[in-house]
Every structure is written in C-alpha cells, then in structure tokens.
Automatic annotation (TrEMBL):
Transmembrane segments: 378-398
NCBIfam families named among the record's database cross-references: Amuc_1101_fam (NF045709), pilM (TIGR01175)
CDD domains found in the cross-reference section: ASKHA_NBD_PilM
PANTHER family noted in UniProt: CELL DIVISION PROTEIN FTSA-RELATED, ETHANOLAMINE UTILIZATION PROTEIN EUTJ
A Pfam family this chain is assigned to: PilM_2
Domain of life, source organism: Bacteria
Protein's organism: Akkermansia glycaniphila
Keyword entries, A-Z: Membrane, Transmembrane, Transmembrane helix
InterPro entries reported in the protein's UniProt record: Amuc_1101-like (IPR054809), ATPase_NBD (IPR043129), FtsA/MreB (IPR050696), PilM (IPR005883)
Protein name: Pilm: type iv pilus assembly protein pilm
Signal sequence, start to end: none
Amino acid sequence: MAEQKQVVALEIGAQGVVMGVFVSTGKQGMALSRYARKDIVLDPVEEGLRIEYVSAAIGELVGELKLKNNSVRSVVSGQQVFIRFIKLPPIESDDLRRLVGFEAQQHIPFPMEEIVWDFQLLPDRGEAEREAILVAIKTETLDALNDQITAHGIHNTGVGCSITSLYNAFRYNYPDETAPVMILDIGAKTTDIIYTEPERFYTRSVTVGGAFITNAIARDLHCSFKDAEEIKVQQGMVSMANGHTEGMSPVEAQVSTTVRNAMTRLASEIQRTTNHYRAQFKGNAPTKAYICGGGALLRYTREFLEETIGIPVEHMNPLANVPVSKHVDQNNLATDSVILGGIVGAAVEACSDAEISIDLVPTSVGKDRAEKQLLPKIAIAGSIAVLGAAIFAGAAYMKKTETAATRIKVAAAVKKAERIGSEISAAENKITDCERTIQKYTNLYNMRFAYMDILQDMTQNTASPNFWISSFVPLVNFNPLDTDLASKNGIKEAALVRDRFDSGNDTALQTVKQDKNNKNSKIAQNVTAICIEGYVLDKSITGSTTGDTVRDNIRQTLGSQSPESPFTFVVKKNTNDKKGVMLEDRMYLSIEDSTQAKLPPYVEKFTMIIPLKHPIPVPAK
C-alpha cells in the first residue's frame, strides 16, 4: 500500500449532513475509513433556521469523527446551484474561461459579480459547437455555508456540486457500464435525474422528493410535518398492484396510497425528462436506472419505478469499488450506502482524475489561494531587491561623472515608465467604462426572458384539474410587510393583500397605482410580485377546501426553496434581515365564493399575489 493520504468529504443536503474520511491506497485508489451522518428534519415554516441546524450538525460530526483542524472537501445539494448546458462557438480562444463567462451571462439570472461559477467541457462528439456544463451558486449562499464549516475548526478547501460528485462516484464504481443509463437521486427537496452514456452527460432536477411526499401525508392525515416524516419513515411504502392495500392497517393503507400518488408524479417527471433529453440533446433512451438518496429507502420504491418507467431499476452502490474499514458498522452501512454517493464522489475528485470536476470557491478560500500563489512572487521580488541593493552599492564606487550620467538615464526611464503607466491607467478606465456599458445592455437583454421564465415556471408547476388561472398581472413595488406607503415618494397606493384591520375578518386587495404626475418620485420602479386570478372548483367536487386546493398546489410548488424558482413566500423586512418572514395565507390569498362572484355554485374565484425573489426593473421611457 502506498503512503496514505487522508481525504475528508462533507455533503450538506436539504435534510441531512454526511461526513466521511477516506484514505488513499495508491494508484488512484481509496478506502472508506469512517463516516457519520446527522438528519435535519424541519417543518417548512422553520426554513429560516436551517443554517443554524446545519452548523450544529457539522459541529457534532467534527467532534464525533475527531476531525478538528483538518481540511475538508465539501459538496452542496443540487437545489442550491444553477446548472446549465451551454454551446460554445467553434472559435479558438486562449482564454476559454472568459468565453464561457460571456455565455454564462445569458443563462444565469443574476449579475456575474453576485455568483461563483465553474464549468467543465463535455466530451467532443465532433459537432460544430462544443458543449459545456456550467454550475453557479449565489456568493452569499456559498460564503454562508463556508462560514458554518470553518466555525468548527476545519478548513474548507473547495466546494463541489452533489450532482457532478454523484456522477463521478458512479463512474468510479461502475467503470464497465457503457450502456445508456439513468441515475435517480431522490433527495428531500428535489430528485436529480442524471443521464449518462459514452460521451454524453445530462441532468435535470424536479421538485418532487421526500419532503413533497411528507407534505402529502401531513395533509391527508391532518398532522404536523415532523409527525408525517416519522410516519413515512416507520410505516411508509409505495402501494403496489395499482393501489393494492389489503392486509394493511388503516393508517398504512392511507399512507401507502398517498405515497403512490406522489411517486406517480415523480414517474411522470422522469418520463417527461427522458423525452426532453432524447429530443433536444439527441440522447438514447436509458436501458437501466440506478436509484439512490434518502427517498430510495422508502419500501417498494424500486419495484414501483421499475413498473412505471418500464426499465430495470436497482439501488446504486457507491462503495462497489471502495474498500471499507472493519471499524465501520456494517449494519448501518447497509442502510446508509445509498446516501453516501456525494461524499464518495468528493473523495474521487480529491484522489483521482474525475470525469467532471467542479470547483466553487468561497471568498475566503479564494483569498487563501491567492496568497499562496503570491508567495513565490514575493520571494522573487525580494531577490530582485537584494540584487538591486548590491548593484547600488557597487555604483557608489563609480566615478562621480558616471554616477551622474546613470542617474540621468534612470530618471529618463522613470519618466517614460510613468508616462506609459498613465496611458495604461487611462486605457483601463476606458475598458472599465465599456464593461459597465456592456453590462447595462446585457441586463436589458436578459430582461426579455424574465417574464418568459416566470410564465414557464407557472405553467410547469401549477397544472391542476381543480383550478385554472385566468389573469396574470405584474405588480410594481409590492411589499406585503409595508402597511403605510400612502405618502412615500410619490407612490400613492401600495400593493397589499391584508386583513381589514378594523374588522380582522375578510381579506382586502388593494391595487398598485403609480402617481404618474409626480416626476420627482425617487422610488425605482421594479416589478416585485405577480397577481394571478382564477377559478377553483368547490370543495363538494375536490373534497378539500378551495383555499387548501389553491394554496397546496401553488404555494408548495412556486414557493419552493429551489434557487431556480422565481417566487418566494418568505419576505425580508430589510437588507439586514437574513431569515425573513413567512407570509400567512391571509396576506396573499383571497377566496370569493360563487354568490359574491356571480358564478355557478360549483366554482369560486380566487386572487393570489406571489412575491418575486428578485425584482424585475421597469425600463424608463
């Protein structure tokens, strides 16, 4: 065995944190020395406290594995990053990263200075354009996670993406798998669908995961999220044979039926993604599926997916080619192996040449790397300074006339250098101005896609036979937490959905109106919310109250924690508010019964105002 090198890997998921210690065994091999995991189960209303729970879990794992003062390679879940596949023009470029950066501006819905990104060229298939995978994350999100890691006495060397790390783990453990296959990582918030075949890689995340199933159980059993999670873990299963529940207790029958309905939606998303992959990326239909993640532990998940997607399904073993220390509990490992793909992939990236290597660098890590790169330059500069001092000392022995002549030449050279420096500074200022202008035009160009993305997100995530949307209206400067905008800076009325404070009963909808006659208004005009109106079937038809039908189908999908969702129901009071306030139903939803709306008795009208995560500027005329 070669000299051992320790690699510590950490994966931060939506409902859990996993940390493992691997040792290098030479020839790009490695072995699992030890690992530990901590679950984080939070009710959706507690999402603002997630970072504190993550920090506590990391601290417990560091203590349990005795890893203080060690370096760690961390991995973030797919729901926290943006993944795009971009086409690069067929031109030679010495600065490939700058070329990819220009393309990234067209695909990432944030200014480039607010994100950290990396890319990987995909295998060349001989086509006119070269394809690359682009992975980006908000800088504030990455730095916040890095702070929680370093707060417990460990040094973060870099951050990867769980999707690409899982792919690397699969390739490491299944090197002979050359047929088109699919990897399904069923996580808490999302399911990551990965397609792999020779010279091809594609992935897409869908918002159907363990939390989606837990919410469905909580709704059907009328219990809390945490109670529903416990019921799912202890009694949950997917009913087979078209909902067969004979021999089950009433609770088990209800839970298994609820789980099957939720899993049916996942199967539909898988089929839709496969069709998209084949049509848009010219991929082949997968011949086998490998499942992993916490959702894969649900009983009969493998059998259900095999039945619904029509191909063989098996559990992925991320330790197939990774020896395991005898000190690792084999009973726990038998259950936990399906959730270790992320840390195995991170270790593969550290110990060998991974097929896809993504390196998202937190601000503090970038500074450390820059300082290390600067040390050789400082040494060279010191040597030059010493040499210059020696030359100067030698010049002291020269004749006065020779010394004067040398000084004149040096002065002339200095003036010339200063002149050139001034010209360079002026040119740099011009370049900076040009870059600012380009950024303005780029932002304006990107605005063309803002409403298209919003409409597409709503179309994909709000389809339901129980209600339909009839109106879509952008709202300017909407703030559900501001109750007194009547006299501020020329904005006469605010966009508010509030209870009538004098009665505390019904909901009042106030329309946004801008004071067009006040030209001195200093408020920037931004679309900050979308008002939708529509109609929902009465509870006599749907079996649930109309408010629940609209709230559950729209809020839980459009208001997800996925960074790709443009909507949110957590509103910050100000820029210093890190957690935000979870909006109550009455703040954004109004139901008007059929009598008030003069509609048939089986239909009621609803109005909902959905805040946007990121305002859309209104161009000045």
